[in-house]
Design a protein that fits this description.
The chain has 176 residues and is an all-alpha fold. It has two domains: 89 residues, Rna Polymerase Sigma Factor, Chain: A; 61 residues, Orthogonal Bundle (Arc Repressor Mutant, subunit A). Helices cover 73% and strands 0% of the residues. It is elongated. Keywords: Sigma factor, Transcription, Transcription regulation. InterPro entries: RNA_pol_sigma-70-like (IPR039425), RNA_pol_sigma-70_dom (IPR014284), RNA_pol_sigma70_r4_t2 (IPR013249), RNA_pol_sigma_r2 (IPR013325), RNA_pol_sigma_r3/r4-like (IPR013324), WH-like_DNA-bd_sf (IPR036388).
Length: 176
């Protein structure tokens, strides 16, 4: 295609496009949600550009036909995706989420807040995200050995903090 034909083609499309855009946008707005309408409008305009030489003089009905086809294609895609998601959920259900400490876990919450942020994050990765020390090492960018050692130490610190918070030792009755 030479430069003159490309310019003529562009001018023709720019002349037709405003009427097509407004009419097809209204057409789609009455038939689908706004996000799908925007996607289908874009697809319709792309096809109109690609097939501009095939577009008849009565361009609006032709553009409606293209938009109708694109909308049907988008609907089929959405249905396929829903079926696939349902199949995956049956074959490989998502693991149940493990919640963080609840309102009755005030000692744990207080102990984690009292710890160094690095130790608290390490423990959260281990307990709540169910990661192994090797996986924690990847997350934190450290060696697996370092993660194992840090996890061991963090668990000891947490244990001491929880035991200290929940069971204050009484000095009553002890010998001086």
């Amino acid at each position: 295609m030479d430069l003159v034909n490309v310019d003529a083609r562009r001018v023709r499309f720019e002349t037709i496009a405003p009427a097509v855009i407004d009419a097809v946008r209204r057409y789609l707005a009455r038939r689908t949600d706004p996000a799908t309408a925007d996607d289908v409008l874009s697809e319709t305009l792309l096809i109109c550009w690609r097939r501009l030489d095939e577009m008849p003089a009565e361009h609006l009905p032709w553009a409606y036909g293209v938009a109708r086809w694109c909308l049907a294609n988008a609907d089929r895609g959405r249905r396929r995706q829903a079926r696939l998601t349902a199949r995956i959920a049956v074959l490989d259900p998502p693991p149940e989420a493990v919640a963080g400490p609840g309102p009755d876990d005030d000692d744990l919450r207080a102990a984690l807040a009292a710890m160094r942020p690095e130790d608290a994050e390490l423990l959260r990765l281990w307990a709540w995200e169910d990661l192994s020390p090797a996986q924690i090492a990847v997350v934190l960018g450290i060696s697996a050995n370092a993660a194992t050692i840090r996890l061991h130490r963090a668990r000891q610190r947490l244990r001491k903090l929880i035991e200290g918070a929940g069971h204050e030792e009484s000095t009553e009755g002890s010998r001086p």
